[in-house]
Amino acid sequence: xxxxxxxxxxxxxxxxxxxxxxxxxxxxxxxxxxxxxxxxxxxxxxxxxxxxxxxxxxxxxxxxxxxxxxxxxxxxxxxxxxxxxxxxxxxxxxxxxxxxxxxxxx
Length: 106
Hints:
The chain is mainly α. It has 2 domains: 1-48; 54-106. It has 4 helices and no strands. The longest helix is centred in the middle third of the chain and has 34 residues, at 51-84. The radius of gyration is 21 Å and the shape is elongated.
């Protein structure tokens, strides 16, 4: 490995709404923590297996699994109903694609 490995900095970037950003800034100011310190602490805790963070990750992972299961059931139910309307499989897929674009959180 390179002798510089672990010394180079990398940016970790993601997007969220302006509303959530404003709420985050307010909470961080209230707690007296900078964004950089907050995110570095959370990432380090996650990497190091901090039990408090792991418990939260487990909780949100299980929620994601439940959402995927519910989404699959809804899709299958929709397919069955759409077939009753005389739609082709491709038309049904197009409908699900449109719904996914409009409501990505589903």
